[in-house]
Amino acid sequence: MKSTIMVETSAHHLHVTAETFATLYGEGKTLTNKKDLSQPGQFACTEKVTVVGPRGEITMSILGPFRPEDQVEISMTETRKLGVTGVIRESGDLAGTPGCILRGPEGEVEIDHGVIVAQRHIHLTPETAVEYGVEDKQIVKVAVGDNGRKVIFDDVIVRVSPKYAPAVHLDTDEANAAGLMGTTDGEIIL
Fold first, then answer.
1. Confidence label for 147 from pLDDT (cuts 50, 70 and 90)
2. Is residue 33 classed as helix, strand or coil in its secondary structure?
3. How far apart are CA 22 and CA 7, in angstroms?
């Protein structure tokens, strides 16, 4: 059974609807692919948005393609900077989460929910899930780091879809705790 897997740091970012993007950047504008990401079809955009909370603001990149709902993903440390409650959720599980203001060069949108601290997770295809001996929604541990900073993260949710590529996603707080620099290897612990 396989246990080694690529681990990436997922820095703060947001996903927007086509309608929100039109308000922020103007009618007729579209997302500009700056860099393809490890997940198939996902890309970092050149367009940035300022996320405004009650206490502060952070400028961050949009990830494409467009989504059916606006979603802002930040670290727990960044919840304090914005002044919002840190709610740990799986991507897409947005009910009952805090909102914020999204400000672009052409306008702004106030969202009443959608700000999350993404639950640490593993993306796997159905085939790679079999190789690792895990299934969708299973909770596992992942060991990462070296040079005296090894950390075993618990509560890592497995997400399985034919649209995914194998990777663990940690936020910047988690990556910093393990002293990670860039993409590295981790070990799934069942």
1. confident
2. strand
3. 34
